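User: Fold this; tokens only.

Assistant: Input:
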Amino acid sequence: MSVDPASTARPLSVPGPRITAPNPPAAGPNPQAAAAPPGGRAAWAAWSIGVSAYFLAVIHRTSLGVAGLDAAERFGIGASALSTFSILQVLVYAAMQIPVGLLIDRHGPRKVLLTGVLLLSAGQLAFAFSSSFAPALASRAVLGCGDAMTFIAVLRIAARWFPAAKNPLVAQLTGLAGMGGNLVTTVVLAQALHSEGWQATFTTTALLGIGVAALLALFLREAPPATGPVTGPAAAAAAELPVVPAVADLPAVPAAALPAPRPSVRSQIRDSWQEPGTRLGLWVHFTTQFPGNAFGLLWGLPYLVEGQGMTRGQAGGLLTLLVFSNMAFGLLFGRLLSRTTKARMPITLSVIAVTGAGWAVALAWPGAHPPAGLLVVLILLMGSNGPASLVGLDYARAHNPVGRLGTASGIANMGGFIGTMITLFGIGVLLDALSPAGAGSYSADAYRWAFCWMYVPLAAGTLMILRLRRKLAAAQARPDAR
């Protein structure tokens, strides 16, 4: 015969230690239960403080995009070596995603964000004073490590503060804030680089981290009060339960009342990876993000200046247009995804299709010099890449429990940066291979054939999305599916 757990509590009239079983929900608030995220002004305040770190990280990340030609001259390097800067930075970023996700799950996003900002500042300061290739390369690796600690930490803060229905919109707004950082790079940093010089520009950028670190340390609350389960002695105190040794004649405490053991790192990663939604998220992120990312991080300015004969001012204007387009698509996709999750796959496949088609027309244009109007359209289309990649994180977030959201988001967030690294490297190698030895610049035809490399990761990623889309649908159709 089953016994109601509540009936096993020792009556007040009986001497000895008293253990009160957890109350049912109707009996009143349970301090051990996780409160629903409140949203509201406090949530937006916490998000704003956290996102300031991501805003700064994007300024640091994209700074090489407007300094690529200057870096090649400063360090005396060609396209392959120049691409190594961004490749290493992106490689470190991608490699750090799973460790960072685990750190967020175990130690909270505030400490991770603070560490990330300090590493960003140290890396950029070292880059400012580097005068040769090797130290500069090492400094970009440190910068990539700090950059890796920002985005998914901000998403974890948002998940704790905002209701689930708002998470897609907040994720897009986080990306929008990052594009604000990109805008600062293309408008302010590019101008400062040519008016103030290399050291002054990058030193000033590095010192911005002091203010952001102070903001995080003093004011950031990574979760609202009384959210998340409280375990151990604190839970007993909250429930007015004395912590006493086990006594043979005391009734057993229900298993549900005991804190769940923390999973091992290996099981945390394994369980996240085995979830089809996590893998689909990774490939969505991979396929949608890399074209715009590779263009904005490194090859956009050289392509427009050397390949298309534009001035630096004209090229900077088009890169600014890429940022504004990204912002507009971020708002649009955020609204659509907040209304229905059914918009995820149509957004993903549409962005892949229009990006591939836009580049096909531009690269096939006679003489490898497409008209300015077509370049504007192409850059507007690539503005959809960053916001569409956040759909991948939405898949990972929706198909994993809260206890491993950081790990799953880290896995998914690796995708686009792996694709970017492959693209940066492939374009750099092809540019050198298609140009005469010792050439100081690259022709429009060399850029055309080098940029065709983008279709290799684009095709591979699309095939994996279609495969995992079917696998996820099959898993959800099983009777035991959640």
